[in-house]
Write a structure and sequence with these properties.
It is an enzyme of class 1 (oxidoreductase). Belongs to the NADH dehydrogenase family. This is NADH:ubiquinone reductase (non-electrogenic). It is a single chain. With about 450 residues, the protein is of the alpha/beta class. The protein folds into 2 domains: about 170 residues, FAD/NAD(P)-binding domain (3-Layer(bba) Sandwich); about 210 residues, FAD/NAD(P)-binding domain, CATH 3.50.50. A 5-stranded parallel beta sheet has the order 5-2-1-9-21. It has a 5-stranded parallel beta sheet with strand order 11-18-12-13-14. A hairpin with a 4-residue loop joins strand 6 and strand 7. Helix 1 packs across helix 10. The longest helix is centred in the C-terminal third of the chain and has 31 residues. The mean pLDDT is about 95. The structure holds flavin-adenine dinucleotide and nicotinamide-adenine-dinucleotide. The site of flavin-adenine dinucleotide has 33 residues, from helix 1, strand 2, strand 6 and helix 10.
Length: about 450
């Protein structure tokens, strides 16, 4: 891919890996006429993760939170190519990447600038049996699989005699990890039991137990203490079996093996959902290894204040969950702000590249070239740093209640008991939807669920 600006200067090639929060924020805010832009991702849609846990229980339809990447690219100023493929290798010296599609076809692409926004995968800490037996809640297909399994277990339990111990096992829904993902998932499951199943299948509903297992003494550890206490009390009242101070040590096909006060125990499960945080994807690890001593952090790619990857500062940027940087949590909020910042930085880099091309045209000895060089140096020095503007954290805790830790004009505010927090949670996330369609269909799903119940069958 090569093209030039009107004055004949070559356009640089920008490759963006991913179609998640970071990449889409970048694409929606950047002037795509400044580069030859190619987006590579195994997913040809954007996934609105904050509502993902509402989808396996049918409160929101999974399609409502998937926005086709081509819809998003249609509103870009310049042409953007999309390749549905995964990056499997990066050569930072020769500035090339290898990409492979789902049919196994390979291509090598050259870049001038590369943006890593490949996100992260769910960590299992290599705990035995987790990858084989647990569901994750990270992608659209995870939601679909969990949804199928929930209904399969419920129908299977209906088929069995109430005294059959297998029935109890099938109706034991276990969520591991008391971070916001685990809490929201357990809350949605319990809402489904309390609000929908009690009406359709009261005999099944009363036998379902949703367990939430957390290794530390508390859940939602990034929130304020008062919010944590309120959330734990609220969750217990909603009948979730909250199991704190308990690390899961292993999983087999039927049982979760835990350690409580240094005593090993086990209990049966019918569905196991694993949400214990993030670990880097293989492509991030591959790049990290190639950059050797510059990259020493196992939790993600190390970046500087301009989001440049250490060891490849001239050409590779990284944003979102694939990075590790003190003070920047792996959240949509961070990825979104980084994407917006990077769009501005790329516009400035284009100006610098243009100047550099002009200098090459006029020759270094001329007076004009000296002036241009001075201007270019100033522009490089004045490139702004990324500054994260933390606005707060929100989490859904079930039964139309949410908690919020907010930062407004430098002051901290909390929302807990107030039913307004739930409305606020909905409004904040609706405002973050990437398209009007996205916003509208999610609102319609809420309306449908409120008046006609969940659509889970
Ligand atoms: P992602 O959004 O994960 O996107 C990564 C992209 O890279 C995807 O398109 C993926 O297909 C693509 N990709 C993967 N491998 C490759 C490859 N090899 N080559 C090319 N492309 C690749 N954060 C909040 O702030 N608020 C919330 O309420 C919230 N709720 C969440 C709920 C759930 C259930 C989950 C799982 C996360 C939630 N988060 C929330 C966290 C938030 O989703 C992430 O921080 C955010 O998605 C990070 O954006 P990203 O662009 O780095 O990665
Ligand atoms: P997390 O890292 O926030 O929480 C994981 C939890 O699992 C921790 O509390 C940890 O102690 C626990 N854990 C780890 N190993 C365990 C084990 N073997 N047994 C029992 N418990 C164990 O992970 P997350 O909830 O997936 O969140 C990932 C990121 O996404 C975070 O940055 C989070 O803020 C963000 N997120 C935000 C929201 C929101 O803002 N509402 C929602 C979901 C995710």
């Amino acid at each position: 891919q090569s093209s030039t600006f009107e004055n004949g200067s070559p356009k640089k090639t920008l490759i963006i890996l991913g179609t998640g929060w970071g990449a889409v924020s970048l694409l929606q805010s950047m002037d795509t006429t400044l580069y030859n832009v190619t987006v590579v991702s195994p997913r040809n849609y954007f996934l609105f993760t904050p509502f993902l846990t509402s989808t396996p229980v049918g409160a929101i339809d999974i399609n409502s939170i998937m926005e086709p990447i081509r819809h998003i690219l249609r509103s870009a100023k310049g042409e953007v190519k999309f390749l549905e493929a995964s990056a499997t290798d990066i050569d930072p010296e020769n500035k090339t990447i290898k990409v492979v599609n789902s049919s196994g076809d390979e291509r090598v692409l050259s870049y001038d600038y590369l943006v890593m926004s490949v996100g992260a995968k769910t960590t299992t800490f290599n705990i035995p049996g987790v990858r084989e037996n647990a569901f994750f809640i990270k992608e659209a297909h995870d939601s679909i699989r969990i949804r199928e399994k929930i209904m399969k277990n419920i129908e299977h339990a209906c088929f069995l005699d109430p005294s059959d111990p297998k029935r109890k096992q099938l109706l034991s829904f276990v969520v591991v990890g008391g971070g916001p993902t685990g809490v929201e998932m357990a809350a949605e499951l319990q809402d489904f039991v309390n609000e929908s199943l009690t009406k359709w299948m009261p005999d099944i509903a009363k036998d379902i137990t949703v367990h939430l297992v957390e290794g530390l003494p508390h859940i939602l550890n990034m929130f304020d203490k008062n919010i944590i206490t309120y959330s734990e009390e609220f969750i217990l009242k909603s009948k979730i079996n909250l199991i704190l101070n308990t690390f899961v040590k292993g999983v087999d096909a039927d049982n979760v093996h835990i350690e409580q006060n240094k005593v090993s125990k086990q209990f049966p499960y019918g569905i196991l959902i694993w949400a214990t945080g993030n670990q880097p994807r293989d492509i991030s690890v591959t790049l990290s290894k190639k950059l050797g001593e510059h990259q020493s952090e196992r939790r993600g790619l190390q970046i500087n204040e301009k989001l440049q990857v250490l060891g490849a500062e001239d050409s590779i940027f990284a944003i979102g969950d694939c990075t590790y940087h003190a003070g920047l949590a792996p959240t949509a909020q961070v990825a979104h702000q980084e994407g917006t910042y990077l769009s501005g930085l790329l516009a400035k880099l284009n100006e610098i590249d243009q100047l550099s091309w002009k200098i090459a045209q006029v020759g270094t000895s001329e007076k004009r070239a000296i002036k241009l060089k001075e201007k270019m140096r100033e522009m490089v020095i004045n490139l702004p740093d990324f500054v994260y503007d933390y606005k707060g954290s929100l989490a859904y805790i079930g039964a139309e209640r949410a908690v919020a830790d907010l930062k407004i004009a430098g002051k901290d505010y909390q929302l807990r008991e107030s039913p307004f927090a739930f409305f606020f949670w909905k409004m904040v996330y609706l405002s973050m939807c990437v398209s009007f369609r996205n916003c509208l269909v999610v609102s319609m799903d809420w309306f449908k669920t409120y008046f006609f119940g969940r659509g889970n069958v």
